[in-house]
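Supplementary Note 3. Input sequence used for the single-chain structure prediction.
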Amino acid sequence: MTTLEVETPAFSWPVATTPALAVRDAVKVFTSGPSITKRLRGNTTPSKRVVAVDNVSFEVARGEIFGILGPNGTGKSTLIRLVATLLSPDSGTIEVFGRDVIRDEAAVKRLINRVSVEPSFFKKLSPMENLMYGARMYGVDPAQARLRIVSILTRLGIERSSIGSPMEDMSRGMQQKVAIARAFLSSPILLLLDEPTTGLDPHSRREVQAFVREIRDAHDATIILCTHDMKEADELCDRIAIVDHGRVVALATPAGLKELVASDDLPNPTLEDVFLQLTGRTIEEDIEEPK
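The predicted structure, written as discrete structure tokens, is reproduced below.
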């Protein structure tokens, strides 16, 4: 399927000689089947080959908030893990500010950070203790880190009294805010957000979205936002790639995507209308994605 690209004059590109992210013909295939033990016992179930990322290509400009939109299981989280160096592409290349994620893995890791939909913490420790641990791993000065931790957490709406309380006493939404603070603590110039507002209440979601904009505008960060929240993508993203069965089927500004499906019968389409028209299903129809 050919990727659809739409040029619109509404978005002014940042001037940069090297893309923040360049993905070229990336492929990732998973194979599942019986374990070695089961095969030794005579299990002859054939292996199943799943193409999670299928010849994906796109570039992201410095300072852009770039959305990857699709339901769970369409390959978007696998794509994020490839960029984050957690997986290696089977073919094709991925570069972060000109650094190859395989050949220059250590350098890439210094440029990026990632927030996943299920962040992990030491639940008996407080946000401050968890983030100070993270700061030591990133080589951030402890005195500077402590000030930044308080500043970021309060900016995200976490009360100062909660900063020293155990993580296990915090709601799912509050824990997600701490995960975002942890990611920003290392001052990444490419921030990967994988479903960052899933499970948050509307007020917390707005706080996180405002913080994402602030990170981009005030700290010259590039944001990759992986989501299946149509409204969030529409409001935050400069451009959006719609992913279906491991392929980018359309890539444009939110307005440009809507232009693709606008008609006399559908004069004011939403992003949900766009997704339905391009993929034949709704965003909620999850399919199984390899982990």
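The mean pLDDT is 83. Residues 189 and 221 are 5 Å apart (CA to CA).
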